[in-house]
Amino acid sequence: MPVFEPPYYAAVFTSVRTPGDNGYGVTADRMSELVREIPGFLGEDFAASESGLRITVAYFRHEEGLREWAGNGEHREAQRRGRAEWYESYSLHVAKVERSHGFERGE
């Protein structure tokens, strides 16, 4: 798990998927590839529960990178398809991180 030097921004996307893939996997892979090209992108984390809840957190050094990602044409098209096909529900939370620390066994 990454730990970045604050301050930075975190975009927390929480979702519940619809049944079936319908092209979601390919698009998700492309979005993960594309976001890495955004200046100021620091990294991402992903988690999923057995109940179907999925959480993706993308980290950005500055708000400008986050805005660039939000306005990216391919990302906007994926958002449109998400509402039309892939998600039962989702939420997005954006936060400025002012404190951050981590732990790894063996360090």
From TrEMBL:
InterPro entries the record matches: Dimeric_a/b-barrel, Jasmonate_Hydroxylase-like
- Species of origin reads Streptomyces aureus
Task: Give GO MF terms, alphabetically.
Answer: monooxygenase activity
What keywords were assigned to this record?
A: Monooxygenase, Oxidoreductase
Signal peptide as annotated in the record: none
- EC no.? 1.14.-.-
Name of the molecule in the record: Antibiotic biosynthesis monooxygenase
The main enzyme category here is oxidoreductase
